[in-house]
Amino acid sequence: MTSSAAPPHPAGVSGRVVAALGVLAAxxxxxxxxxPPALTADRAGGIVDRRDLSEALRAAFVAYxxxxxxxxxxxxxxxxxxxxxxHLVKAVLAALLLTVLVALGFRLARxxxxxxxxxxxxxxxLASAGVLVAVLAPFSLAMVMANVQGAVAPFASLLPMxxxxxxDAELADTLTQVERGLxxxxxxxxxxxxxxxxxxxxxxxxxxxxxxTAAVVAVVLVATSVLAWRRFAATRPADRxxxxxxxxxxxxxxxxxxxAVALAVANATTAADPAPALLAxxxxxx
Length: 286
Hints:
By secondary structure, the protein is mostly helical. The chain contains 9 helices and no strands. The termini are far apart.
């Protein structure tokens, strides 16, 4: 988009390009759901679906806790590595989808701004498509952030799977011991089992990853909002559609900034003192 200093001119938006981007976005949505399990399956380790993963994780975690070691044993390391790869694939697909949606959104905005010769119905269709992209793009951004977090801290990301519908007596006893260790970790003795020490560190890193990602997103949103409002102020009032698009960009960026900042602050706070939050998780998770 250009400011009002330049005379209006056709944006040259190709309908074929817009259609191709729409088809690509739809394909990436399907790939995001279908591809990661197929691409990351560990058939040698017997991990093909979520049920296999849950069973392997629970058995390996009980053995790890009883080992008394800090380092992950091979069976648990295999599960954690699989989960990291799984989230990495999803993060890449979500990032590609976000890129396509942003490109599609800009082309739809340009088409809307230069749609003077189109009928009201076609202009409404462009506006509706733009709104749909504006809804899907933040969702894709959230998927990128969540999966980057899971890829860099896969062990902590797996913890919810340990606490879902626990029926095994050995696992239940192990989780009780984890809770007891967390409750005593802030006591006068300060004694922490090696496995629990690693869990606390990884839980902290898990929240640091989200805090850092959210902070980067917040900076980008601030820059986007400021740029949009500056161009809005420099655009002539008569250029109504351009001002509408710029105002929409500025407002959407400002609205998304609030949860991004809240997410960064909340996760940074948890990362600074992870043990209480981890204890609350286990106490409420099963």
